[in-house]
Design brief:
Length: 221
């Protein structure tokens, strides 16, 4: 999670969407009073090699107007938590940005990231045993209500959406940043995986109906 004062952006970080690469790139536009939450050690090392600012100002946060917010921002702080912690003028005046990803695709990456394949657990069983992971991103960055954000960048067309949102410079900074890549095998496509996991497909379609409708994602099968 990042609050970048120079660009007047609040980045709410959802899960399994390439958000770490976006964070690393956005860090390069931050000043000393921006909020930057910590990454895991290898990603912090990559951020440092690129010459960007690391984790800072995420505890007992100091704001440009001289006020402070007690508590701690975390990597995946929800929009509601951030809204409650930041000065009202910043929440109203900054653009709230997040990244969204097809939930069917995101779960495949989560399965491989957690080593389900190496543990001998089928994808279908992984999904059925981890129902709480299916619709996690709407809890972080709601699609409706008072905590709805301003800009939802789609993982599937990130370059185009960032250009349309006026974030072309951040996209250019992202080129060459590949944080947390290389875990998922290339043959693990949505079509191939869900063809063998029809129960998982039905469950994701049920629990993620709002985001599927909002972004036009296709239900496999």
């Amino acid at each position: 999670m990042i609050i970048c004062h120079p660009l007047r952006i609040i980045f709410i970080k959802t899960k399994k969407v390439g958000g770490t690469s976006f964070e690393i790139a956005l860090s390069g536009f931050c000043g000393p009073d921006c909020v930057i939450t910590p990454l895991v050690a290898p990603d912090e090392a990559l951020r440092a090699r690129l010459g960007h600012r690391g984790a800072q100002n995420f505890e007992n946060t100091a704001w440009p107007d001289g006020s402070r917010s007690p508590g701690r921002f975390a990597a995946h702080s929800t929009a509601a938590e951030v809204r409650a912690a930041v000065p009202a003028a910043i929440w109203r005046g900054y653009r709230k940005v997040t990244i969204w990803r097809d939930p069917f695709d995101a779960l495949i990456s989560r399965y491989h990231w957690r080593g389900g394949d190496r543990k001998g657990l089928s994808f279908n069983d992984f999904v059925l045993r981890n129902r709480g992971l299916i619709a996690v991103n709407p809890a972080i960055a709601p699609l409706s209500g008072p905590d709805r954000l301003d800009t939802y960048l789609r993982y599937e067309r990130l370059a185009e959406d960032m250009a349309d949102a006026g974030l072309g410079e951040v996209w250019q900074a992202m080129e060459g940043v590949r944080a947390k890549a290389g875990v998922r095998p290339p043959e693990a496509t949505v079509e191939a995986v869900y063809a063998e996991a029809p129960e998982a497909a039905r469950l994701v379609a049920e629990l993620c109906a709002e985001e599927i409708a909002a972004f036009g994602y296709a239900v496999p099968g």
